[in-house]
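WARN no homologs supplied; continuing
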Amino acid sequence: MEKIKLFFSAGEASGDLHAGALMAALVRESASRGAAVEFTYLGGDEMERAAGCPPVVHYREMAFMGFADVLRNLGKVRRNLGAAIRAMERTRPDAVVLVDYPSFNLRLARHAFSMGIPVYYFIAPKVWAWKKWRVRQLRRYCRKVLSILPFETDFFRNHGVEVEYVGNPSVAEVDERLRHTPERSGLCLRAGLAADTPYLLLAPGSRRSEIAKNLPVMLAAAAGAPQYPVIIAAAPGIEPEYYRAFTQAPMLAGETFALMARAEAALVTSGTATLECALCGTPQVVCYRGGGSRLVYNIMKRILTIPYVSLPNLIVSEEIVPEMLMHLCTPDAVRRRLLDILPGAPGRDAQLRGYADLRRRLTGSDAPARAARAIIDGLPE
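OK structure emitted
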């Protein structure tokens, strides 16, 4: 049986989830063609399940975000990159598949290109929003971008990047997770609330700096709806005592998706969680306090080349979820938008109609299977 050797790199939890599904699809697709796949990878548990072997580096050792975090861990970043390059040189894969995590993965793309190994990028860097100069690297080093966002394909084509829209995996992933999500009564009891209490979810982010800026605003805004107690989605790796410096409100760790799916409404820090929240059908207000200054906001408006920052709005090309950003992210402003999406309020039905439109745009394609076919079709005979 022919053997196909593939090298994968994913640097955080969501990348591990998407890469794991793609790797499983590659196993199925190659088997249908009478071949077997051998994986070498940087990633996590989902990828290990698909590959049947441990990672070269687990993403827990790679998940550094922001300039300061990377600078503090520069030695570890360099060691991880060295380990990845050595593994690539040792295994000489037929193709390299990169999943998001651009600062690190584009360095791997350059090295793979220098070795003559074709590079595929699944879940590409958001160069259409910021760091547009990275599009030159994608054009030079990558054989093809396997896009999961329908609006970004025109951008890549217009910049000379080979791109194929393979569909978005989030709908299928969310629907599968919803089938196994615990009921609200159990979540409430574990959080210390009465069974089946309608609650608001606060998802202030996964980093300490995000939590420190966003959580106080969210708590103050949620106080305007006292009939709904809050539950905080605590991030893995952040000790409960950190949150207790801000509040004694109930919290659960490692349950963000379940809490989101069963909440009456949610205040969500800008990021991929906004798309998951929309696909769960939970009304939300997108919050990002950041530095909170008008100056920083105006600078970011000049840097960003897109009209929105949250994925639901970008995909639908209109504001279906309110975005409260920087100096606009105040308790009063967030409270007004929150009250408008609670049960019985007019904004709730409007947002749910937007969610239905979002689902229609993303449903209808098995993204991992299409991406797997694109990769294997591109390999030399």
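The chain has 18 helices and 13 strands.
OK
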